[in-house]
Structure formats: C-alpha cells, structure tokens
Write a structure and sequence with these properties.
three-stranded antiparallel beta sheet, 1 helix, 3 strands, mainly beta
Length: 90
Amino acid sequence: AETVPLDVAIWTAPGEPVPVAEGLAAPYEPITPNTPWGPPWGTSWFKVTGTVPAAWAGRTVEAVLDLGFSRHTPGFQCEGLVHTPDGTPV
C-alpha cells in the first residue's frame, strides 16, 4: 500500500470537560511516533494534517492512527473522536 507522512501535534488539556472551541484554539505542540503522551485519565487532543497526492484522485483514502491501545492491559486506555476543522464530529 502507498503511504504519505502525516504531521501530528498534541495539546494536553488542563482538566475536563473541554469546550470544543477551547480544544480547537489550543496551542498544539509537534509530537513524534512512539512519544509517551498525556497523564492517566487525562485528555489530550491531536491535530493530524497531511496532503493527499493528486495522483490518488478518485481512490478511497484512509488514515490509520494507532493511539497505543494494548490488548494486554485492562480498562480504557485510549479513545478518539475524529472531527472536521470546525469541530463537527465525522
């Protein structure tokens, strides 16, 4: 399968709940793969960006994101919500 790199940035919320407007406007910092992120039971927001090559026009394109879930540890380890740039859930 063909791949292209994605840029990933993170913002760790100071508490919960977080209004969508606050999360969207937060100061995100770049993060690289395999970097530990967020405290236990904390909330972190990721901003993932990239460009779909023009040669892929007409194809189905997927982004595969591994948040670090381990089958060997019980409980809720990570979860995610994908949204559009304006905060609308996909």
